[in-house]
Design a protein that fits this description.
The complex is a heterotetramer, with 2 copies of chain A (306 residues) and 2 copies of chain B (326 residues). Chain A is α/β, with parallel strands linked by helices and 306 residues long. Chain A is built from 11 helices and 6 strands. In chain A, 63% of the residues are buried. In chain A, strands 1-2-3-5-4 form a 5-stranded parallel β-sheet, sandwiched between helices. By secondary structure, chain B is an alpha/beta fold. In chain B, helix 8 links the parallel strand 6 and strand 7. In chain B, helix 1 crosses helix 8. Chain B is globular. The relative contact order of chain B is 0.12. The chains are: A alpha/beta (306), B alpha/beta (326). Chains in contact: A-B, A-C, A-D, B-C, B-D, C-D. Chains B and C meet through helix 6, helix 7, strand 12, helix 11 and strand 13 of B and helix 6, helix 7, strand 12, helix 11 and strand 13 of C. Bound molecules: thiamine diphosphate (TPP) (2 copies) and magnesium ion (MG) (2 copies). One magnesium ion (MG) binds next to loops of chain A. One thiamine diphosphate (TPP) sits at the interface of chains A and B.
Chain lengths: 306, 326, 326, 306
């Protein structure tokens, strides 16, 4: 198939440490851009879900930057790795990371949630070639990812399927149907990552519907389980590699994250889940906290829609 | 002062949306209906029931993001004598159709389902979130009453009527700010359509947010000397067949308007009722069997052909077909 | 010899049921459609796909009793180039309406849903198991094609047509032995209704098991010198509006007959299509917004008013209303 | 409320051993009748699910005979215990045990699955006053039972809610939604019993969708878990009592059973799940194996429907 990526974490074990460090730096920069772009897009849209975009930015950057065998010129390759954003409301982060890695224009992707723009509030497969399925209804993306993993195995493809779920999403029974099914079918080409930011739409998971002991649940459903700091890029990269090497069972990575990560006034505050309207002042403060320079902030926020 | 100090602005939950009107009415009615309990699947702020929670935290039941369990559990709550109101977005009600069918309707429970965020009115969340199928799905469930009030005042009245009514009810609210259409002497009644504008050339039958658009269309038509009657069909099931028959006789042409797929919803209910009594030309305004998209509700209404000009155009077509058997 | 040695007799899975015809056709078509995979939720013997499993165990995917996951996973299978056919009972399809909507229809996947055990035809399992809402629910999903073939031969043809068609399809089969209605030169085509009996006084439009009953009703009517046309409307969506318009013009009255709630199903589709073209009196034969019950299918058809005599009676009513605007 | 039952397992700890033994004998007889009656009803109906009726007969007899504060004259009492047959296809066993304990006429309850009879293929609340909710669609009964338990707690009732689930039923995601919810809300008035007969409609659980490690799953969902021999009446009775004494958490009893139990030619054979037609010879052999005498067999099987 000729799928070969210049440098990926897949090779990192054999590469020297300097290469890995370079990769981590690259992904870190991608994550920073992802957060900035997502904030700007939500600002322009006048609505959207910033909290869960911030918590997942490092995971997405690590996936797109180093783990997925997926890059812009192979989005139609049958043997590409698949990524499904099961927590579809995290769309702004997906669009942003895709923009960073050249799947689309960063400028175009700021037209979030606008009529006529392919960047809908939730990712839609018919709008964007690198979106693998439409999501937004929690639980479904995971099942679709499972179907992909099953289908790829049937077709003897080496491709892997990755999917990112929210923690609140785990309350959907469909998730446990899929979990049981993936284990039963030994789908070791399936890797689920949980953006475990401890918050959902309205409040903390604990207050809404407690998930703990979470790792025990996945173990009892017969998955290989890893727990990581979801903001530690090199730990993420190592864990993805370990998951890829796990035979006979699907893998879940419980990534402990902070909702709103990087934007101090959002961190751990349920109200920033969505659908919120960001003021210009809030957007500027967020971008500054995310390391954007004055001119970058202007570039991001100045009106581009007419 | 930094932005930190400011609370995020919740979108669309203005005091004038149908969901807010519902949420406030529900909270206000709690005293009168001591058995009332409200079920939420982690979107209380979206459905409007945060008002109820604030006033009656002990009667607010959190089910997490698990609509199937919530829907069926309502059957159990009703079975032990409580009056459960299940709340979520319309599209997620579609996830629990079978639960509503078996554990609420087949069992004839006195339980209510209130769905916010129906149709294109959802706006920027996009096509995946815009339920265009819910009226059809719930209308087909035997014994399920289906409501879709049109303005905040009527929503408050319908909330009371729904609680007073004995049996399973599915009611649509709405996300976006809704126009005030009615004044205090308006009176909602389950099963009754209402003529909200007199007219003799054609009848525009609408529900929910489309009533305002139908009234707007009637204004346009008046300029062309077309005298359009407007019916607010806030009860979609059981449909007010008597009123429809009268309108068909008196105006000879019908237009239906709904923020829903053209198949199976209000248009279907009206077509069924009239075919069984007074067949006349009907034109259907609704989303033409496609999914929605992100955008502002008014833009989407325009784009997908359910705004006032489309209703007016449909009226002209319906009138032109009168008496032609075509 | 003891009873031990005897295998239990499976009920209703005679070679003549629509589900058996489907299951056998599917197995036979496996070679021609190498991407075809069949999804089951632990009722292969009930849906007929045990035939496929026996022939192609490697392409038979077991999801256990978990219809939501099965439905959405079909979207993933289609996404990687396979041709998934989801199978379960019609009532359990209602458990996964939102999954069909988002992960199959909104995504425009080339995936098929085949539902056995629809309507009163389910028989003794009783009301909880008799889906009377599925046509309405799936018809309302944008872009979903809805089929309900009438006899085993047509079912086999429809199975092929469905696999050849590109896009999401919902197809009803049937549990009970089905009458043979058509001979080898019958030709099923998606989107086309067929006149299966000529007539000029009224048109009986039926689908699924009701086609046989409509033909029977036409025989009764013939004895009274009423010349009833019978249309087999095996595609409910997209409905054959052209044929309906022609029948309305030529016969002036319509009766619809379906093993489904009278609301939102075939009757709704026909009423919508005709109201938009040639409004004529329509009478609806279907289950009148109640749930079913245990019993034999023929008893139930009688009890709930969907057997041949009820179709004939509806035809008399429709004819009587002709030209009276009533 | 004046709910007092002559002798129940509830008192058994304080009663002398002889009483408990009497109770066990009583329940054993009830279970025997339940199996016999269910077989006869399925024979007359010409269809039905015998396997899961046989596996659950001892559990049902123990519940109705000794555990539930529920008897015929209090079926409308607000504070009665509730029982929900979540595996609704087990209806013939429910009707039979109810007939044994006087909720209905044994003779009437043989009119299974007939038009006009309230004994539908799956239990229907509008047909029979002692059926608490309609079931047949797997997973839903459990949610309804949860709603009852929640509502009873809200109303400060001491009543308990019991529900019987099939093992295959546990593949429904709704079950795990309800499991999570019941634990979150500390519904210690809810007791679920799993008829763990290892078979479902088509085959063994292991072949269809494996459930093991099953106890670990329930523990990870924060339930109090007990495993018992589902055909050992005194063990069942003791376990129900322990479950009732468990505070702060719902209880699940994983009852290991044999599908088709008591009818040798059915035991552990998936094909006897349903919907099967019993021949007269099969019905006679089953009844004989279940301890029915010649005249009882005739009494059960001779035509009573016209
Ligand atoms: C089936 C379904 N029910 C409800 C919602 C509404 N909803 C959107 S996001 C959200 C909270 C999700 O929380 P979580 O999964 O923890 O996401 P994150 O914290 O990563 O944003 C809810 C309830 C939905 N999208 N889908
Ligand atoms: C939601 C749903 N899907 C499918 C079915 C069809 N069905 C009826 S019984 C059964 C097998 C149940 O197996 P299990 O729960 O183990 O019951 P038991 O072995 O006790 O009879 C199936 C799949 C159903 N009743 N409900
Ligand atoms: Mg979260
Ligand atoms: Mg079992």
């Amino acid at each position: 198939m000729g799928l070969a990526k210049p440098i990926t974490a897949k090779d990192a074990d054999e590469e020297d440490k300097a290469t890995l460090e370079g990769l981590v730096a690259d992904v870190t920069a991608a994550a920073r851009f992802t957060r900035q772009h997502a904030i700007a897009a939500i600002y322009h849209a006048g609505s959207g879900h910033p909290g869960g975009a911030m918590s997942s930015a490092d995971i997405l950057a690590a996936l797109f930057g180093a783990e997925l065998n997926l890059w812009p010129d192979i989005v139609n390759d049958a043997h590409r790795d698949r990524f499904v954003l099961s927590k579809g409301h995290g769309a702004p982060a997906l669009y942003a990371v895709a923009a960073h890695y050249g799947f689309c224009s960063p400028r175009a992707a700021l037209a979030l949630r606008k009529l006529g723009s392919p960047y809908q509030g939730h990712p839609h497969v018919l709008d964007l070639p690198w979106v693998e399925t439409s999501t937004g209804s929690l639980g479904q993306g995971f099942s679709v990812a499972l179907g992909m993993a099953m289908g790829l195995k049937l077709q003897k493809s080496q491709a892997r399927v990755y999917t990112l779920l929210g923690d609140g999403e785990l309350q959907e029974g469909e998730v446990w149907e899929a979990a049981m099914c993936a284990a039963h079918h030994n789908l070791d080409n399936l890797c689920a990552i949980i953006d475990y930011n401890k918050l959902q739409s309205d409040n903390r998971n604990d207050a809404i519907m407690r998930l703990e002991p979470l790792a025990a649940k996945w173990r009892a459903f017969d998955w290989a389980v890893a727990e990581v700091d979801g903001h530690d890029i090199s730990e993420l990269l190592r864990t993805f590699r370990r998951a890829a090497a796990t035979a006979g069972r699907p893998s879940v990575i419980i990534a402990h994250t902070v909702k709103g990560k990087g934007v101090p006034y959002m961190e751990n505050i349920p109200a920033w889940h969505g659908s919120v309207k960001l003021t210009r002042e809030q957007a500027e403060e967020a971008l500054a906290a995310l390391g954007a320079q004055r001119d970058e902030i202007r570039e991001f926020l100045d009106d581009r829609n007419g | 002062m930094t932005a930190t100090a400011e609370a995020p602005a919740l979108i669309g939950s203005s005091g004038d949306s149908l969901r807010e009107a519902f949420g406030k009415a529900l909270a206000a009615l709690a005293g009168e209906f001591p058995k009332l309990v409200v079920l939420d699947a982690d979107i209380a702020g979206g459905t409007g029931v945060h008002h109820f929670r604030a006033a009656h935290p002990d009667r607010f039941l959190q089910f997490g993001i698990a609509e199937q369990n919530m829907m069926a559990a309502a059957g159990g709550l009703a079975a032990v004598g409580l009056l459960p109101v299940v709340t979520t977005f319309a599209v997620f009600c579609l996830r629990a159709v079978e639960q509503a069918r078996l554990s609420l309707a087949y069992t004839r429970r006195n339980a209510k389902i209130v769905a916010s965020h129906p149709g294109l009115d959802v706006g920027p969340d996009g096509g995946s979130a815009q339920a265009l199928e819910d009226i059809a799905a719930f209308r087909a469930i035997p014994g399920m009453t289906v409501l879709s009030p049109a303005d905040p005042l009527e929503m408050a009245q319908a909330t009371r009527a729904m609680l007073e009514f004995d049996g399973p009810v599915y009611m649509r609210t709405g996300r976006s700010p809704a126009k005030r259409l009615f004044d205090e002497d308006h009176k909602f009644e389950i099963g009754k359509g209402q003529i909200v504008r007199k007219g003799k050339d054609v009848t525009l039958v609408a529900c929910g947010v489309e009533v305002a658009r139908a009234l707007e269309a009637a204004e346009h038509l008046a300029e062309e000397k077309i005298d359009a009657r407007v019916v607010n069909m806030a009860t979609i099931k059981p449909i007010d067949a008597g009123l429809l028959a009268r309108c068909a006789r008196e105006t000879g042409a019908i237009v239906t308007a709904e923020d829903h797929n053209i198949f199976g919803g209000l248009g279907g209910a009206v077509a069924e009722a009239l075919a069984a009594s007074n067949p006349v030309p009907i034109e259907f305004v609704g989303v033409k069997d496609t999914f929605g998209a992100s955008g502002e509700p008014e833009e989407l209404a325009e784009h997908f052909g359910i705004s006032a000009p489309f209703i007016a155009e449909a009226a002209r077509r319906a009138i032109a077909r009168k008496g032609k058997g075509k």
